[in-house]
Amino acid sequence: MRTRIGIVGAGPAGLMLSHLLHRAGIESIVVEARSRQYCEARIRAGLIEQWAADMLVETGVGARMQRESMVHDGIHMAFGGALHRIDFHKLVGKRVTIYGQQEVVKDLIAQRLADGGQILFEASDVALHGIDGRNPKITFTHEGRAQEIDCDFIGGCDGFHGVCRPSIPDGVLTTYDREYPFGWLGILAKTTPVADELIYAYHPRGFALFSMRGPTLVRYYLQCAPDENLDLWPDEKIWDELETRLGGTRPLPRGPLVEKIIAPMRSFVAEPMQHGRLFLAGDSAHIVPPTGAKGMNLAFADVRVLSRALAEFYRSGASDLLESYSQTCLRRVWKAQRFSWWMTRLFHQFPDETPFDKKRQVAELDYLASSEVAATSLAENYVGLPVE
Ligand code: DHB
Known about the structure:
single chain, alpha+beta, seven-stranded mixed β-sheet, binds 3,4-dihydroxybenzoic acid
């Protein structure tokens, strides 16, 4: 097979890259190790920055999101037994869209297929070749047959554990890594939302977050041990703990759980995000802890830069945007890293904290709740910094 851009990974990064390239008249093929069903069911965060929601609409994949999502003007912070609201729309004139990542994935897959795009699911033994030269190649097994894709460039969109980043020769990448001494226990439950907007809670027993997916589907998270045993968390215990940490000011509407997971927390960046003709995008290049839900938004920002650079290359032959791809993306990546780390630091209990640290943490929450200047910085980052 031959195409212009070979893309590894059918998550938000790979699918959006393929979609944006198609709109620029550039052909691509997506290769994915998992099944379509797996990709469409993989539950992640559900918060879309305003520019990213606009991009989905402007590029023709936002119709269902517009019908089914919820648009939020702000968030609540819970601490000291009270709720404090931060009004993004008042502070920075922007909003966020609440819509599950897997719904975006479903919409992108449907659109790519409707546009005649090729997504090869359940490809095994995916390997990259010749990324240092002008004719890179992706090899894999698909439907029992050995296959090859010859291409001009490769989009490495296969996530943190994928094969693309390790295909870059030793010594090229510098990595920055930070693990956190806790995880998140996440649940999805069939019941009504307890509030009209998300609640981020600081509590001496640990962080908790209320989020939602629709009028009868809610998402909650609890700070837990990184290796927490889910067997020790029967449903009633989860509800009790959520109720305590979210302030105890009102009972939570309870309902049957449809999912229970442990999410790891790490910050990771690999630099540069490009080597030869391989361009890394999304989680293959960087991971943020989930607080603030920047993961998919960062992936979209990467592929927006990449698709424009490729479009310019095919239009004029100029490669300067491709050469500056990594630098352009990393400026945003590091600001999102800073924000995600800061939100994580603000709301979680750290095991090595001193009483001084805890007092400082509560003072910072109080500052955010009482100062427009402080709240504006949170709002500006939360709704998404301007895109290039
Ligand atoms: C969700 C997840 C987050 O990490 C967050 O900060 C906000 C919302 C979610 O799953 O809805």
